[in-house]
Amino acid sequence: QKEVEQNSGPLSVPEGAIASLNCTYSDRGSQSFFWYRQYSGKSPELIMSIYSNGDKEDGRFTAQLNKASQYVSLLIRDSQPSDSATYLCAVNDAGRRALTFGSGTRLQVQP
Amino acid sequence: ETGVTQTPRHLVMGMTNKKSLKCEQHLGHNAMYWYKQSAKKPLELMFVYSLEERVENNSVPSRFSPECPNSSHLFLHLHTLQPEDSALYLCASSQGVTVSGNTIYFGEGSWLTVV
Fold first, then answer.
1. I want to staple B49 with a disulfide (CB 3.0 to 4.6 A). Which of A68, B68, B76, B110 is the partner?
2. Residues of chain A contacting B33 with CB distance shorter than 8 Å
3. Could you tell me if A100 lies within 8 Å of chain B, comparing CB atoms?
4. What is the DSSP letter of B13?
């Protein structure tokens, strides 16, 4: 069973701090990695994708990928209360035709 | 507005009813998906369609029956469901099936309650 693991949280950070969200995956053949944000009662929306080892930055968000260690992380700088949501890690397993999702980490940004 | 529209947004049905969920994508994509999201569980892939052909059926009970008449529309027909089938059902689409790294875009979801 190919798995994507995330700490369910909640992860609580003060406003303006850096939030660090982590994800590990079991399939070494995975090629594509995604972070989605899901507000309560809403559908997931894509934040970032990353395909190569290293960092990828987009505004306040930075995705980090380490294929050797099989983990991917998301850093949110200058966290805002509006960032409070569940963050889903998704991985494209080699050979499958869809994404496998983790159960998500709930982030709470305290004003 | 994500370009993927689902109806109805909320549905309450009895265990003996037959109902359908509808999904339409306006993104010109050629792959569509049904995912199920239950409380405190990861998103579960149910079905994948590529160019109207079902390419993956993830061991879903036969009381769920998908239909993809064209690359823009996807249905999930429901009959004799169980209370444990109550969940958020998410439709999604992508330019191609994600083995090539294409991004999946989700609709707003249909909240299903089985009573």
1. B68
2. 98
3. yes
4. E
Which amino acid does the sequence have at B59?
Answer: S
**In chain B, which residues have their Cβ closer than 8 Å to the Cβ of A4?**
42
Question: Given an 8 Å threshold on Cβ–Cβ distance, is B43 in contact with A49?
Answer: no
DSSP B98: G
Hey, is the C-beta of A51 within 8 angstroms of any chain B C-beta? Answer: yes
Do the chains contact at A98 and B43, CB–CB below 8 Å? no
Cα A51 from Cα A40, distance rounded (Å) = 28
Q: A98 and B90 in contact by Cβ < 8 A?
A: no
